[in-house]
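Changelog note: in this version the structure field was regenerated for every chain. One regenerated record is shown below for reference.
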Amino acid sequence: MPQLRLALNQIDAHVGDIAANAESVVHWTRHSAEQGAHLVAFPEMVLTGYPVEDLALRGSFVDASRRALTELAGRLAAEGFGELPVLVGYLDRSEKAARYGQPAGAPQNAAAVLHRGAVALRFAKHHLPNYGVFDEFRYFVPGDTLPVVRVRGVDVALAICEDLWQDGGRVPATRSAGAGLLLSVNASPYERNKDDLRLELVRKRAQEAGCTLAYLAMTGGQDELVFDGDSIVVDRDGEVVVRAPQFSEGCVLVDLELPAAAAEPVTGTVDDGLRIDRVVLSEEPVEAYEPEVTGGYAGRLEDDEEVYTALVVGLRAYVQKNGFRSVLVGLSGGIDSALVAAVACDAVGAANVYGISMPSRYSSEHSKGDAAELARRTGLHLRTVPIEPMFDAYMGSLGLTGLAEENLQSRLRGTMLMAVSNQEGHLVLAPGNKSELAVGYSTLYGDSVGGYGPIKDVYKSDVFTLARWRNRAAAERGQVPPIPENSIDKPPSAELRPGQVDTDSLPDYEILDAVLARYVDRDQGLEEIVAAGFDRELVARTLRMVDTAEYKRRQYPPGTKISAKGFGKDRRLPITNGWRERA
């Protein structure tokens, strides 16, 4: 059987920075060539970054992507890689009308095979996702071909991401076309437990396609999305040949033995009306060689480590890609700000993390001490600025009482953080968690201020779990656990009035989070949640808090998405909304 050394370049891309992305493609193609690759692949829309959102509607951006693709083909040839086929994702436009409202020239999520200084083959994504964070039906028109490229005597069918996640289309068409390899390029965002789902999907599709399947994934982060890599190659029976590390950029090499292309290949139209678009690049098989890379299975991260790593990768990408050098955290001594600070130190280094302790008359001594202990353990910069003088000045002028007095303290802290950010150039990190955002347990323009919310999609009970994991991981490595045990063990409190604890206003977090997971993540209604065994009054009160807090969530900064339904593009509800789940 013909042999083929496949190079899957599991790399990051920067949305909009086409020149830097092209440079990255050249760099990793060079690396792949040095490793003896016969076919090189890069992730979905690697040339433009993903997702480009409304940039897809800007003609100048589409033109720049198309021009960069042609220039990239020429540069690869000029650097001596012209005989090496390179698959690159990019943004294209259609040449014909696809549906009403999107005439000829509409954008396409596309990929191309570059060879001998030219674009040898272009194709567009066939299945367009339109759920969760995806709006591809808004932007793109679908492709209507099954692209097949013959490389060293092997027919390789090509697909893009959702082409595998949906039934039909290019997967059964690959079997009909008799291809020996199905290569899919992807930019599928991370979600908790998605790696297990992805593996089963790839196994199933390989069996349906009747051939070896290579699934190449992107790494890095883009705004709220994280890409976790985890590229996979399985044989036609669904057995894993190689699996790449999670959250790690690099080149995955694998030597494959694949069926020889048919002397008289299938032509015409196959499954779902897809027309086979076949291009022959090289007929002669590779001279037989001793395989060097026949497989490998990268160690998997345990669940808590996986989520924590996603938070680190997401924050690091946001900081670096937006040109920040440092971050700023308000340190209360509580668990949320402690976890955010630990994530920040791991993401950008403690030398680039700045903390401010802003005690009021209600701040406990142990909370102030916990903030100082966190700084000592991590090595971040800490300053202490009491808010008492500012608070007294406001109170003397306004005479506030009750909730307004409590919230004033939070807003003074928010103002101070933004003032320091403005003066010193740090990115302020908002410490709110998913539980608080869900029920509106935060102060608008107070503890909700910031440019990024690292734990925005983490429920409070998971905040404790991740903090314990991070400390345990540090101890196992012989390092100092970053989060003070007191921050983990003490009852959560905003400390805005004497003796205040969160359970004065909220149910126990374990119960609250279980209700929220059903209502927010799974869209269950009141009766369905009550039927699952929860107290009716508690559920009704929780749901009312969620519904009336929508306006607050809209004003919260972006933050790393780790669940199937984070607050943002995943969950889109009207602010002005008269519907309520009735008790």
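Spot check on this record: The first helix runs from residue 18 to 34. The mean pLDDT is 92.
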